[in-house]
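Q: Structure for this?
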Amino acid sequence: MKNFLKIFSLIILFFGLSLSAQTAEKIEYLKTDWSFKGLFGKFDRAALQRGYQVYTEVCSSCHSMKYLSYRNLAEKGGPEFNIEQAKAIAASFEVKDGPNSDGDMFTRPGRLSDKFVMPYDNIQAAQAANGGAYPPDMSVLVKARGGGVDYIYSLLQGYEDPPVGITLDDGVYYNKYMYGNKIKMANQLSDGLVEYSDGTKATVEQMSKDVTTFLMWSAEPHLESRHRMGFKAILYLIILTILVYFSMKRIWSRIETEV
Amino acid sequence: MSDHEYTPKSKFGKWFNDRLPLLTLANHLTEYPTPKNLNYWWTFGGILTFCLITQIVTGLVLAMHYIAHADMAFDSVEHIMRDVNYGWLIRYIHANGASMFFLAVYIHIFRSLFYGSYKAPREIIWIIGIIIYLLMMAAAFLGYVLPWGQMSFWGATVITNLFSAIPLIGEGIVTWLWGGYSVDNPTLTRFFTLHYLIPFLILGLVVLHIWALHVPGNNNPVGIDIKKPSKDTVPFHPYIVIKDGFALLMFMIVFAFFVFYTPNILGHADNYIEANPLVTPAHIVPEWYLLPFYAILRSVPDKLLGVIAMLSAILILAALPWLDTSKIRSAVFRPLYRQFYWILVADVLILGYVGAMPAEGLYLLVARVATAYYFIHFLVILPVLGWKEKTLPIPLSITEPILGGSPNLATIKNKESLNN
C-alpha cells in the first residue's frame, strides 16, 4: 500500500511538472472569479444572457459563431432563455434559405434550428472588410487560446497607448496581452456601450467578464453536466475503490503476504 | 503450463473442450501461478489492457460520427462535442485516454527496466512489447491528425517530412504518404484508415505478449526464478485479479479527473483552430508522450542523422536483453545499476522537458548532452556494468526475504524502500 501511494503521488507530481513546463512562459493575466471553475462550477445564467447581448450588439458584426444554433440559447446549462425568447431572437435574424421550387434563394426569419447567422459570406469577404485580418470564429475561441478565459478577459481590457519607440501601422493597435502586442482589432468596449436590461452597470470590466463567460459556454456547452457527472463518477469510483481495497485485504489475508 | 490435466466437470463441457479447449484456457488463466510478491508496479499490465479496450470502444463510437474529410473533419468533431448524446464524454475519454495509455506504458516499461524483466527467458515478451509501443506511437500520431486542427495539420506535415531525409527516394516516399504534394484530404482519409487498423494489430500483439508471458511466468521484484506452482506463487484468480482491480480503480480516478475537470489541459490550444495550410503555428510541438524523442530528433543538426538517432533511441530498446550483460535481473541486488537507472529516468524526463522548449541556446545544449547520455547508458554503461558490478547476494526463494532468515534482509529492505 505504501508503495502504491508512492506511485500515485509520482503520477500527480509528473503531471504537475509537465503542466508547469507547459505554462512556463505565461504572462500574468487579469484575474477574476469565474463561476464555472471548480468541482461544482456552473455558469452564471445572468452573465451568460448579458454576454450574449454583448456578443450580438458588439462582436457579431465581425465575428461568426458557426457552431451555435439559436436553439442552444434555450438549452439547459446555457443562457437558458425561455423558448419564446429564443424564438424571438432567432426570428430577429434574416436567414438565407433555398432554393425554393422555382430554384431561387430567398430570405426568411430565423428559426430555432438555424445556425447563428454569419456576419460575412466567406473568409475572403471578412478579410476584405477588416484590413486583411480574419476575425476568428468565436465558437471555440476560448479553447483555442493558450490562456483561455483569462486571456480573452484580459485582452478585451488590454488596450493602451503603445510605449515610446513602437510605431503602429494603420489599422494596428497596441494590446499588452496580445501575442506580439499588435492586434488588428480596435478597442471595442467602452463604458456604457450596451444597455443591460437587468440594470447591471455596463462597465468595460463587466462586459468583458460577461462576454467571456458567454464564450466559455459556447466552447463548452456541456460544461455543467460534465462537472455534475464528474463529481458523481469520481465519488462512485472512490467508494468502489474502498470496498475493493477491503475485499482485497480479506482475500490476501489467506496467505502470509502483505498486499 | 501445468494445467493439461484439467478436465471439465460437465459432459457437455468435456465434449466441447475436446473439440475447442476454451475451458482449458479459462482454467489456465484462473489458475495461472503468479509470484506472490508482485508489487503495484506490476499492476500496469492490466491497466494497459483496460486502456486499449477503452480506446477501441470509444474510438468505435467516435468513428460513427466523425467525417474523414479535410473540409468536414473539424466540424464533425464539434458536432460530436455539441450534438451527439454524451459525445463530449466519449471524445474526452478517447483524447485523454491516449495520454493515460502512454503514462501507463511508460511506467510499465520502466518497471521492466528496474526489475530486469526483459532478460532471459523473457526476451520475446520484451520485443513484442517494443513493437506494441511503436504501434502505439503511430496510432497516437495518426489519431492526433484526425481532428484537423492546426497542430494536427502541422504535426502531420513535420512528421511525414521526416521521411524526406532518406537519400534519393525520400521525396518520393513523402509524396506517396501524402497522396499528393502536401498534407491534404487524401492524407486525412488514409490516416483515418490506418488509425482504425492499428489498435487491432496492437490487440493481436497483446495476445502474443500475454501468451509469451505465460510460458516462463511473471518476473518478480526479487528477480529470481521460482518454482511454479509453489509456496512462492498464488493463483491469478482471485489474488491478482482483485489487486489489479484495485490498482485499476485508483488509475481510473486520475483518469476521470482529467476527463471531467481538465479535459483539454494535455492537448494544445492550437488544435481548436481549424487546419490552415497558409498559417504556421509559432511552435509546433508533439503531444507530451513523444517529447523525449522529439528532443533527440532536434538535438542532431543533420536531418537524416536526427531521424536515425530518434529511431535508434526506440530500437535500441529491442537489443536491451543483450546489451545488459548482468545475470542478475532485479535492480534491488544491483547497487550500481540502481543508481544509473534513476539517472536514466531523470535523463528521459529532462529530454521531455527540453523537447517542449524551443531548440535554441541552453535548451539545445541540454538536449544534446541528455541525448548523448541516453545512448551511453545503453551502449556503454549497461554492458560494462554487467561484468564490473559487485551484486548483492540474492535469496533462494521469494518466501525467504519475506519471512526473514536471510542476513542481508535488513539492508535489502532498506535500500528497496529508499529507491522505490
